[in-house]
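<goal> How does this chain fold?
<body> The protein record starts here
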Amino acid sequence: MDTVKDLQGAVQRQRADLDTARESLTALSRSHPAPELSRLSAELTAIAKGTEAAALRCNRTWGGLQAGLQLHFNDLVQEFQSWLAELQLELRDCSSQSGDGAALKAKIYRLKVSLEQAGEGQRRLGQVCQEAERLVQHLPRAGAAQVQEHPRCLPAGVERLRAGLLSERQGAGAEQGAAP
């Protein structure tokens, strides 16, 4: 990304230098008409067109890289949200599970495993946040705003899941203690 940005800057500087040179050459051609100056002007125009084409390619490449980064980030967020939804579904399944002592033991075990996976959520969330911080500097304002919004709303989902799992585990432990 930085290489493309550097190239864009270099091309912009070259375009400015070429424009200045063309203006000077045009003024010189007016005051001292000569075939050599006309040829030089034509060559300078050809170079300017090549520089313009390079600038367009840089802009397209930059836009493609930005779109690819945004897509990668959206995939990362979608993967996180899918993982979170699976755990929330497991919590709902555990909430509806009841029965004898063996069923309660199974429920407590499922909750324990889910709680361990919820701990994994902090690591996954950290990855999403790190990726967001890294990408923001390379995206246009609209894309950067979208990338910054995701890490703000994701922690609440992890915390609700964790609280639900802890609450359900405590309830299951109380049920197991009360079971004959």
